Amino acid sequence: MTKTSLIEHARQLSATDRLELIEAIWESLQPNELPVSDQEKALIDDRLADLERNPTDQSPWSDIKARLERRNR
């Protein structure tokens, strides 16, 4: 099956099935298979360093999610 036919087949799936497919594909990847640029690595390093310098200056996911939900109303 070609890449084009795979994509066409996936488009015929329900949204739920497409999301399950995405999840299955994502979970099949090994960490060393994920493309991460030098710029992205530097950003991750900067954010980790900031976390170590300011451990109490972070927001839990529940707070971030609530702020995003309020913004989208």
Model description:
- It is a single chain.
- The protein has 73 residues and is mainly α.
- It folds into two domains: 1-34, no CATH class; 36-73.
- The protein is 68% helix and 0% strand.
- The protein has four helices and no strands.
- The chain has helices at 3-11, 15-28, 38-53, 61-71.
- The longest helix is centred in the middle third of the chain and has 16 residues, at 38-53.
- The termini are far apart.
- The mean pLDDT is 94.
Question: What are the SSEs and their pairings?
Answer:
Elements (H helix, E strand, L loop, with lengths): L2 H9 L3 H14 L9 H16 L7 H11 L2
Give a brief rundown of this model.
By secondary structure, this protein is mainly alpha-helical.
SS class: mainly alpha
Low-confidence stretches: none
Strand content: under 5%
Q: What radius of gyration results from the CA coordinates?
A: 18 Å
Number of helices: 4
Quick one: overall form? flat
Q: Give a quick account of the main beta sheet: strands, pairing sense, barrel closure.
A: none
The residue-averaged pLDDT reads 94
Structure summary, number of beta strands: 0
The domain tally reads: 2
Helix content: 55-70%
Distance between the termini: 43 Å
* H/E element sequence: HHHH
Give structural attributes:
single chain, mainly alpha, 73 residues
